[in-house]
Amino acid sequence: MVVSSCGSVDGKKEDPLHQIRDTYKSINSVAMSSVFTVKVNNKESKQLFDAETIYEDKKLVKAHAVSKKSGANNSSSEVVLTTDGNNWDMYKRSGVEKDWQKSKGDYFYIQPDYIKVLDIFYSIKDSFVLEENDKEYKFVFDQSKDESVDIFNLFKEQFMLSVTGIRTDELEKEMTFIFDKNTKNLKKVVLVLQYNGKLGELKTTASVDYYDWNKIDGKLIDGLVNK
Predict the structure, then answer these.
(1) Which residue ranges form the domains of the chain, and what is each CATH number?
(2) Residue 48 and residue 35 in contact, taking contact as beta carbons nearer than 8 Å
(3) pLDDT at residue 12 greater than cutoff 80
(4) Which of 79, 97, 98, 99 is nearest to 89 (CA)?
(5) What kind and span of H or E run contains 85?
(6) Spatial distance between the Cα atoms of 94 and 69, rounded to a whole number of angstroms
(7) How many whole angstroms separate alpha carbon 210 and alpha carbon 111?
(8) Is pLDDT above 90 for 106?
(9) Are the C-beta atoms of residues 93 and 100 closer than 8 Å to each other?
(10) N or C: which end of the chain has fewer CB within 10 A?
(11) Please, what is the Cα angle at 115 between 113 and 120, to 5 degrees?
(12) What is the rounded average pLDDT for all residues in the chain?
């Protein structure tokens, strides 16, 4: 394994971030499977979120997502989002419903959004340390590189983060981005936030796996609601 700053790899190879940027700019679709876990003292809740997303010019234009929650309020839901370029349609149903409920809006979104997450990553790329092996580039967040970088606030919208009664600077923060070394595609993101103090214990974990880059068929998504 090679460990280096993000400016170079072992001082000899070109910075892989240039190739990674070129690759993600060409992404037109991707699938993801994610697990969000929140543990407060001894109580834990978990949400599973799977989605297929399609982009045009780095903007979301179609998606299919399934969400499942466990804990005090077990529930599940499924949505399909489509746009004609101006207006959006959302088709939604719960896990016990067969028929879709349709609504319209100016804009709908999927979070975490593959493109937006990478855009944020690039805006703070100098705050990561690169660890490299034969198969992967692993970028690990290092707060000491820039104490002013607040990954909680930067990523809170994409990962739907929130805390009550705790300052964000009281949180221990860990974040890792893993890219396939061959394709340069983002494979995995892991974000961990922890607090242990007078208010108790809190641990939030977001783990997102990406796959099937540029392989999602929009017609199959349309077929879910156009039967």
Answers:
(1) 2-225 (2.50.20)
(2) yes
(3) no
(4) 79
(5) none
(6) 12
(7) 13
(8) no
(9) yes
(10) C
(11) 95
(12) 90
